[in-house]
Amino acid sequence: MKYLVVLFDGMADYPVEQLGGKTPLEYADTPNIDKLAKTATAGLIKTVADGLKPGSDVANLSVLGYNPDDSYTGRSPLEAGSIGIDMKETDVSFRANLVTLTDEPAYEDKTILDYCADDISTEDADVLVKFLAEKLDNEEFKLYSGVSYRHCLIWDKGTLDVGTLTPPHDITGKPIKEYVPTHENAQKLYDLMKKSYELLKDHPLNLERVKKGLRPANSIWLWGEGVRANLMNFKEKFGVKASMISAVDLLKGIGKFSGMNVVEVDGVTGYIDTNFEGKAQAAINEFKNGQDFVYIHVEAPDECGHRNEIDNKPKAISIIDKVILGPVTEYLASTGEDFKVLVTPDHATPLSLKTHTNDPVPFFIYDSRNPKNGVDTFNENTAKETGLFIEVGHTLMEKFINE
In terms of CATH, what superfamily is 2-72+231-402? Predict the structure, then answer.
């Protein structure tokens, strides 16, 4: 038996007037999704329990069968593991976004124009983060380069008691005055953020970006604090040899800490310009090489939701359906071996809100051995109409693999 998960990050949404009152999933062209869903078990699942922040960290852990109450130690430790940082028990890590801020004289009067600095390339970001590290690193704090706008700060003998650190994608377009760190334990973090702006605002690379019509990456924004992660080995937990395919450090970190084979794919960006074909071929190769379980995480719908890109979100869903889901399921069918497919988002990222919610999301499980009376088209409404609701998200993986 082979197991394929295609995780459409942030795909679930609300009806959008500009899409004729449909959700992006309803509006998208998804023949492969609908073909599988016709004979699949479909319903809704609560991937993020009430009281937890609806981040991709908590939600993907839940989809993968890990109870966030037991396994979640923060977002950034998972990313730190992917980058290759060997955190000590006393370390606290933080996500360090490269963001674009407006140019008011006082830092607290600025506004976040862009949480990802025009999707800054990994190459440009590496230059800026290493420059900051040269100026800001000391015995207490160290900056590490990650991918695109996503980087990491390690605080030696730090604390999690830092008050509320708001994800920048939740406050894009808003003045930061109400969101800057104010807790007394976070003052050193706030100082680093302010110093980063002074160092980056006139950096030659940023001046060149502005000449090219790109937004400057002129500050770091710290959030997502956590301590060293520790996940049960996925093979020991579920009895299958598993692989993780993703563009983002968060998912690679989950894969690493759970003992999966983390596959690197050239040209992946986490956005709609990513190497979709490469992800599909990587999944097929993993199955050919003897892996039982492949988790393909695709970030693009989520990024489009954060950016309120009404045309691009259904487009991203359609591309994933055509370029990833179709070819990989065709390959699995061609082998003659039994296989199962799980299609779901991790959470909703409504275009109207530009941030995550903890609404239940649609899912289906297709089993080549056991056709079901499924849904003619798969979306938020048809999944709800089936009446199937999985209230405890981390129980889905057990159902997928062992039922």
Answer: Alkaline Phosphatase, subunit A (3.40.720.10)
